[in-house]
């Protein structure tokens, strides 16, 4: 039996051996924190690596590097997990995570939350919009909130020693991935809003008292669909359909997002150029979108206020 750092190694005289990879909580007695509701133990460092992404003979099946920690809870409950960088910016929030009484092992996959997407999005690259950007090497803060108690620890994410790419290149990749993800989410919120406008106009059309406004309501409904069609292809029902229909802005930006996420280094000049082009295309959509809100939605809502009926949403949360 051997203890190496926070690992306990056991072996027989034959050919078997076992490794308990984190015994740090066992070094504490429950009497040391019996008056606490929740205790977060020191978090061991981890690597930014693609280890575990392969299925070859030398790769541990299903294993990948991530942040892992042990939490002690006085009782079975729910906690919130918040990950921030050292500037205090929130990267990930997981609410209502179940914990049992005693020791709990928890983890974070080193990724930010993925961009929120419309529910019926179908693409060949569906795996990628479902992933958030992976953080670059650095130090991050893990905070656990339980009731009125809050505990925090830091974790160091180190670069895989086998990788010779400069750390700054990973920061460049991360920055671009965040910018692309933010624009994807914003565009999806715009689509959600336009669909909500369509739903409400369909309800308004059923009201006899609004017959005098029918042409304006129809115009708004058609414009909402026209704007959605500028950036979103709604004819795709299965992933392979993407080759049969015109690819819209959403298809192109998610493709770029896939490329940026799947590499391990600084974005190429080609990716930067493509990103510049897509931003320019999106600005054209954005201008038309805000013109629609100012020149059609808001004036119609002024008229609807006099009738006492539901109003048209002026943003995705309306």
Widest β-sheet, arrangement of strands: 5-11-10-7-8
Number of helices: 4
Largest sheet, described in full? Answer: 5 strands, mixed
Pairing-aware structural class of the strands and helices? alpha+beta
The tally of structural domains comes to 3
Number of strands: 11
Radius of gyration computed on alpha carbons: 26 Å
Terminal CA distance: 63 Å
Task: Outline the low-pLDDT stretches.
Answer: none
Shape designation: elongated
Question: Which range does the strand content fall in?
Answer: 15-25%
Mean pLDDT across every amino acid position: 86
Secondary-structure element order, as H and E?
A: EEEEEEEEEEEHHHH
Q: Please, could you describe this protein's structure?
A:
The protein is an alpha+beta fold and 318 residues long. The chain has 3 domains: 1-30, no CATH class; 33-118 and 131-159, Immunoglobulin-like, CATH 2.60.40; 167-307. Helices cover 35% and strands 22% of the residues. It contains 4 helices and 11 strands; from the N terminus they run E-E-E-E-E-E-E-E-E-E-E-H-H-H-H. The protein has helices at residues 167-205, 214-231, 249-262, 269-307; strands at 2-4, 7-11, 17-20, 38-40, 46-48, 67-73, 77-85, 90-99, 102-108, 138-146, 149-159. It has a 5-stranded mixed sheet, with no helix packed on it. A 3-stranded antiparallel sheet has the order 1-2-3, with no helix packed on it. Strand 2 (7-11) and strand 3 (17-20) form a beta hairpin. The chain is elongated, with a radius of gyration of 26 Å. The termini are far apart. The model has no long low-confidence stretch (mean pLDDT 86).
